[in-house]
UniProtKB/TrEMBL annotation:
This protein's UniProt keywords: Hydrolase
Entry similarity comment: Belongs to the isochorismatase family.
GO MF: hydrolase activity
UniProt-listed PANTHER family: ISOCHORISMATASE-LIKE DOMAIN-CONTAINING PROTEIN, PEROXYUREIDOACRYLATE/UREIDOACRYLATE AMIDOHYDROLASE-RELATED
Location of the Isochorismatase-like domain: 7-181
UniProt cross-references to Pfam families, sorted A to Z: Isochorismatase (PF00857)
Native organism taxonomy: Bacteria, Bacillati, Bacillota, Bacilli, Bacillales
EC numbers for this chain: 3.-.-.-
Listed InterPro entries: Isochorismatase-like_dom, Isochorismatase-like_hydrls, Isochorismatase-like_sf
Protein name: Isochorismatase family cysteine hydrolase
Gene3D superfamilies documented for this protein: Isochorismatase-like
Origin superkingdom: Bacteria
């Protein structure tokens, strides 16, 4: 069983550019959004549960400088400048309205796939005496995986609810979940998450 006081919800990169038809990732990587499952509804329900129980919710978003000076290697690997991918202050970088940070929730801004890299996420969690993390968001095999890997290295107990994370294709999501299952995290149906609390 998990203690509510020691558990936080991390909502990762639920931003406009990640899944909207005219978002940067869809354009840049030619993602077929018609194949995307609805992960927003189960994430909203988890947010409701955490807020109703006075638990910590941390929204994590990615923002890059226009010239990608805060991650030049990304600009070498992908056409991020052309599509202004998650550019600071742009609509592309905005968290989608249904999952916008609510009163009392925290916001962490990152400039790598890993939510712990050069952010205050670890300090924030430790200040709230958090030992368990429920990780949701996108993409399963990119930012969720990278953030979970760091959390595992930092000795957090991680749980990833299957229905609350998505990737560029069902195949990539399946692959990401398999990697997450290898030590990094428990991977469970979202209904099982609610049963974990005492």
């Amino acid at each position: 069983m998990l203690s509510k006081a020691e558990t936080a919800l991390l909502v990762i990169d639920m931003q406009y550019g990640g899944g909207a038809p005219d978002g940067s990732l869809v354009q840049m990587l030619h993602v077929d959004v018609s194949r995307q499952e609805d992960i927003v509804t189960p994430i909203i329900r988890l947010k409701d549960f955490f807020n109703e129980n006075g638990m910590l919710v941390v929204n994590i978003k990615t923002e890059y400088e226009e010239d990608f000076s805060n991650w030049p290697m990304l600009a070498k690997r992908f056409e991020v400048k052309k599509y202004r991918h998650f550019a600071r202050g742009s609509a592309d970088a905005a968290i989608i309205p249904p999952l916008a940070p609510r009163k009392g929730e925290k916001l962490v801004v990152k400039h790598r796939w890993d939510g712990f890299f050069e952010t205050d996420l670890d300090q924030l969690l430790k200040a709230h005496h958090i030992v368990n993390l429920i990780l949701v968001g996108a993409a399963t095999d990119v930012c969720v995986l990278e953030t979970c890997s760091s959390a595992f290295s930092l000795n957090y107990n991680c749980i990833v609810p299957i229905e609350t994370t998505a990737s560029f294709s069902p195949e990539r999501k399946k692959l990401g979940l398999e990697v997450l299952r290898f030590g990094r995290s428990q991977v469970v149906p979202v209904k099982e998450v609610y049963k974990l609390f005492n």
